[in-house]
Write a structure and sequence with these properties.
Layout (H helix, E strand, L loop, with lengths): L2 H12 L5 H12 L23 E8 L2 E8 L2 H14 L4 H6 L4 H4 L8 H26 L1
Helix pairs in contact: 1-3, 2-3, 3-6
């Protein structure tokens, strides 16, 4: 499935909820399915800077594709990172760099987050793209 197809699927899922409280509850539920980072990877190096909550993100390259694992000390943040992982996990570095992640605005996520959580969301996306860029550059050598 392409990133865009996954994004469309996420938008369709969120369309089932009329109220934002229901959407928040769904995001929290999604966080329970987040591919959890190994405890030994909960290091300062994997801690995303700019998040209100503590969020750890690791990434590995296998067969030319990136696979992410994460955890957070806040359930809503774990749900947000799990949405990003769902969209980007298992794709090539270039596909991740090219992704516009329009689903974030399409579901109204950014506008319904506090400013600090919105900054955290931006930091999560930035970190995932930094991993993609690093692996892309490394692969071009």
């Amino acid at each position: 499935m392409t990133i865009q197809e996954t994004e469309q699927q996420i938008v369709a899922e969120f369309a089932n909820f009329d109220e934002w409280l229901d959407r928040y509850a769904y995001i929290i539920d999604l966080g329970r399915d987040c591919p959890v980072i190994d405890e030994r990877d909960k290091t300062e190096q994997n801690l995303i800077q700019g998040c209100q909550s503590r969020v750890w993100l690791s990434c590995e390259l296998r067969d030319g594709r990136l696979y992410f694992r994460a955890d957070s000390d806040a359930v809503i943040t774990r749900g947000i990172i799990s949405l990003l992982i769902r969209a980007l996990d298992g794709h090539t570095p270039q596909e991740i760099l090219d992704a516009d992640l329009s689903f974030i605005d399409a579901i109204g996520l950014r506008e319904h987050l506090s400013p600090t959580r919105s900054n955290g969301l931006t930091s999560m996306v930035k970190q995932m793209r930094m991993y993609a860029l690093a692996y892309k550059v490394k692969g071009e050598k």
